[in-house]
């Protein structure tokens, strides 16, 4: 069963999507393409109690890492990018070019930098304004 729940946060409304056991997606609702619940998805605040608690601790500055079971969904490339982002230590800055190099992409992204945040919600850099 897929559940969803929308929460307010310091970075705007976030839609949480997952199962009763894992987080699959965090979507920034204020972006150009707010996510709508999929067919058959059920609303459930209860399914995301731990997610919401850890996100709020993060936004309050009391948490730098997360201990949540995740099951991200995406292409093999997206999954590789998210794994590389997760390996960047909190507070370290990595350029998109460096990230591409780490992924073995010889003609990867150019310009800009990416400061690592532990929040899965903040891993939207390379995924059209949402995290899956």
Give a verbal description of the structure:
There is one protein chain. 22% of the residues lie in helices and 20% in strands. It is globular and about 45 Å long. It starts with a strand and ends with a strand. The longest helix is centred in the middle third of the chain and has 11 residues, at 49-59. The chain has 3 helices and 7 strands, in the order ββββααβαββ. With 132 residues, it is an alpha+beta fold. The protein has one domain (3-131): Methylated DNA-protein cysteine methyltransferase domain (Double Stranded RNA Binding Domain, 2-Layer Sandwich). Strand 1 and strand 2 (14-18) form a beta hairpin. A 5-stranded mixed sheet has the order 4-1-2-3-7, with no helix packed on it. A two-stranded antiparallel sheet has the order 5-6.
Major sheet details: 5 strands, mixed
User: In terms of structural class, how would the helical and strand content be classed?
Assistant: alpha+beta
The CATH superfamily title: Methylated DNA-protein cysteine methyltransferase domain
CATH class: Alpha Beta
H/E element order: EEEEHHEHEE
- Overall geometric form: globular
Domain module tally: 1
Q: Which CATH architecture?
A: 2-Layer Sandwich
Task: Report the span from N to C terminus.
Answer: 17 Å
> What is the strand content?
15-25%
CATH topology: the name is: Double Stranded RNA Binding Domain
Count of β-strands: 7
Number of helices: 3
Chain-averaged pLDDT: 84
